[in-house]
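Reply to dn_fold:

You asked what the input looked like. This is it:
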Amino acid sequence: MTTTLHFDSATSAAIGRAVDALAGRQVAVLTGAGVSTDSGIPDYRGKGAPVRTPMTVQQFLGSEDARRRYWTGSHLGWRTFAATEPNGGHEALVALETQGVATGVITQNVDGLHLRAGNRRVIELHGTMRRVQCIRCGQIFDRRDLAVRLEHDNPWLASPDAVALGPDGDVLPESSAGLVVPACTVCAGILKPDVVFFGEFIPSEKFHEAEQLVRASDALLVAGSSLVVNSGIRLVERARRRKLPVVIVNRGDTRADRKATVKIDAGTTEVLQALVGPLTALR
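and this is what came back:
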């Protein structure tokens, strides 16, 4: 990391305390939407973010019209979403893993940027936009192949006007009337992105994998998450029960600020980059 970073005195002091808390330890990392904002993917829970009413799994499964709205917006957003690139924060986490500091990354994001950046052990708590699954027969489809089908059956999707990207790769198009909804080519069942919708639970085996990573580590670093989602706060509680240091990097308040060993209220990219040198030098 050759970038020269400048912080105010309070942030610099907090980073120093974070280095002291994490030094010489095996660190599990938990990331949220704030890690991907510098890649152009908005954080819909951050300060100033617009109020959203995301589609629930019950709405998606219960209505053809809802699925038509979903696939229209999701596809238009996904085209931009899929073109985003990892940022310096992602690269810093790769460096921490490569140098033996980070034991792995648990992410609440569905953008796949940690894997694209080069992290080897990534637990995607909320799934991934890379795959689509039939809820009847279980067949898995690559999202890129589905995109080709959608544009073939709905040519107007191939050249939409500029749209505003939502944090989960969706937008709110003016109209979805007439969209041909994709169905499973094996059994004609309903296709659903391999992500955890609102109203769904994280698969128990996936959360258990995340717990195991925390259990096998000596500290927990939370980056870019307000910890509003219960899965994140539960992992913080697992770490606290074992009396592990918990360092939180996030702009704005989180649900665990009072429980953190160190809280750094600053941008995740810059702080993660600043942590790499000191932590890897101590290995």
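The longest strand covers residues 127-134.
Hope that clears it up.
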